[in-house]
């Protein structure tokens, strides 16, 4: 473990929060100016087994931040134009009312493709291409670019297909080549079987499984995660849920990435500062990425406070969660996962937990940690 004495208050808060969990454990890592300040863990990865430095877990939508970094590397290299039509990179996409959808509309959750209309099975999900083909066929759920709604899973397949058509590499391979291997970290969109003994078992509070009125807002929200018939159980189920080793091996860049806090923090550190000799994005690229926030409520009118999405990242919104400055950006994940960077403080932050509460304040832990981090930075 690593604890910079100046950041002991953040470590103390982490250990207190983890001890208070009903089950499971967590890891936390923080970099500043390219150097590690905290790399700590606590609790259990599995019943009776302590969390350790090799433990990894599903990071849910924190995956989207890593996916966005990959997209912005292509944008920076001139290989991807966010304001270009998707059909420029994916010709089959231009059908059924999707002809004018741009890459930016997908990255900003404005494409109308927050869920798949067809009932896809886990077998089809595993093959990836059937999901992409279903999205290419379907009609948008709402008129594109007239509003936004969180693309909980589909953003991974939509952007993953675009990345593949540009690079010839599946997004899992692209993640390894662009981020994981250069930085020497563990992050996967489809993990190898060799990491399975190091995977934390997820534990949730067992929210009931409900059916909703056809094409109602709750119906679409559920399908955004279930894909119809692919994920039909609880989040912590071992068959068809996110404790399923088969799911761990799948390309699910929207919500099924696998990593740990150390890796996430180091990746975000290298986005805003050279870290171990690697700088992933330039300041100008980041400024453009965070300068296009979605205003107001989503198309279903969900009440504030709500996360503010820009071009692939959740950006600073103090009403929703504590931030370090107006240049904080990243992405959280179900149950409290978090990865972010701050361009002003040159911070990289990663938090991963296998206790996945489904209640509205389930992400409160990383918000509390960020608030203590802000106070600590201000007192330096």
Brief characterization of the structure:
The chain has 380 residues and is α+β, with helices and mostly antiparallel strands. The chain has 13 helices and 16 strands.
Write the layout of secondary structure elements.
Layout: E1 2-3, H1 8-20, E2 25-32, E3 35-46, E4 49-50, E5 57-60, H2 62-76, H3 86-89, H4 103-107, E6 120-121, H5 122-127, H6 129-137, H7 154-167, H8 171-183, E7 187-188, E8 203-204, H9 217-226, E9 228-229, H10 245-248, E10 257-259, H11 261-272, H12 283-289, E11 308-309, E12 314-315, E13 328-333, E14 337-342, E15 347-353, E16 355-356, H13 364-378
Helix pairs in contact: 1-13, 2-7
3D structure, described in words:
- The protein is α+β, with helices and mostly antiparallel strands and 380 residues long.
- The protein has one domain: 3-Layer(aba) Sandwich (Beta-lactamase).
- 33% of the residues lie in helices and 17% in strands.
- The protein is built from 13 helices and 16 strands.
- Strands 1, 2, 3, 4, 11, 12, 13, 14 and 15 form a 9-stranded antiparallel sheet that branches.
- Helix 1 (8-20) runs antiparallel to helix 13 (364-378) and helix 2 packs parallel to helix 7.
- The radius of gyration is 19 Å and the shape is globular.
- The mean pLDDT is 95.
Overall shape: it is globular
Number of domains: 1
CATH T-level topology: Beta-lactamase
Structural class: alpha+beta
| Sheet with the most strands, sense and barrel status | 9 strands, antiparallel
In CATH, what is the class? Alpha Beta
For CATH, the homologous superfamily is named as DD-peptidase/beta-lactamase superfamily
Order of H and E elements = EHEEEEHHHEHHHHEEHEHEHHEEEEEEH
- The low-confidence runs, each spanning 5 or more residues with pLDDT under 50, are none
Q: Give helix % range.
A: 25-40%
CATH architecture: 3-Layer(aba) Sandwich
Number of H- or I-type helical stretches: 13
Oligomer: single chain
Q: Would you tell me the overall average pLDDT? A: 95
Number of strands: 16
């Amino acid at each position: 473990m690593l604890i910079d004495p100046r950041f002991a208050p953040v470590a103390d808060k982490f250990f207190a929060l983890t001890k208070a969990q009903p089950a499971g454990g967590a890891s936390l890592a923080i970099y500043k100016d390219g150097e590690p300040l905290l790399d700590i863990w606590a609790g259990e990865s599995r019943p009776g087994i302590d969390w350790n430095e090799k433990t990894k877990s599903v990071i849910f939508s924190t995956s989207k931040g890593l996916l966005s970094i990959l997209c912005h590397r292509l944008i920076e290299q001139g290989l991807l134009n966010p304001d270009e039509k998707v059909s420029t990179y994916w010709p089959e996409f231009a059908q059924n009312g999707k002809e004018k959808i741009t890459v930016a509309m997908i990255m900003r959750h404005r494409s109308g493709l927050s869920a798949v209309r067809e009932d896809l099975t886990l077998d089809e999900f595993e093959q990836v291409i059937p999901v992409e083909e279903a999205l290419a066929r379907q009609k948008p759920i709402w008129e594109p670019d007239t509003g936004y709604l969180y693309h909980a899973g589909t953003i991974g397949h939509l952007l993953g297909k675009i990345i593949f058509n540009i690079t010839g590499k599946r997004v899992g391979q692209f993640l390894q080549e662009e981020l994981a291997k250069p930085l020497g970290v563990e992050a996967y969109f489809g993990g190898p079987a060799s990491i399975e003994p190091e995977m934390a078992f997820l534990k949730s509070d067992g929210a009931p499984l409900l059916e909703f009125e056809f094409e109602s807002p709750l119906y679409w929200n559920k399908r955004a995660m279930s894909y119809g018939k692919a994920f039909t159980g609880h989040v912590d189920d071992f068959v068809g849920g996110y404790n399923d080793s088969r799911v761990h091996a799948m390309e699910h860049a929207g919500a099924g990435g696998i990593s740990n806090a150390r890796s996430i923090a180091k990746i975000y550190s290298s986005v805003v500062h050279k870290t171990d000799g690697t700088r992933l994005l330039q300041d100008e690229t980041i400024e453009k990425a965070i300068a296009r926030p979605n205003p107001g409520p989503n198309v279903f009118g969900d009440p504030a406070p709500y996360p503010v999405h820009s071009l692939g990242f959740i950006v600073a919104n103090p009403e929703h969660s504590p931030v370090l400055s107006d240049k904080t950006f990243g992405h959280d994940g179900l149950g409290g996962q978090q990865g972010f960077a701050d361009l002003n403080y040159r911070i990289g932050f990663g938090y991963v937990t296998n206790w996945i509460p489904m209640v509205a304040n389930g992400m409160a832990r990383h918000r509390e940690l960020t608030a203590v981090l802000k106070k600590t930075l201000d007192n330096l």
